[in-house]
Amino acid sequence: QVHLVESGGGLVQAGGSLRLSCAASGRTFSLNAMGWFRQAPGKEREFVTTITAGGGLTYYADSVKGRFTISRDNAKNTVYLQMNSLKPEDTAIYYCAAGRDITTVPTDYAYWGQGTQVTVSS
Question: Whose CA is closest to 122, among 85, 82, 88, 78?
Answer without folding.
Answer: 88
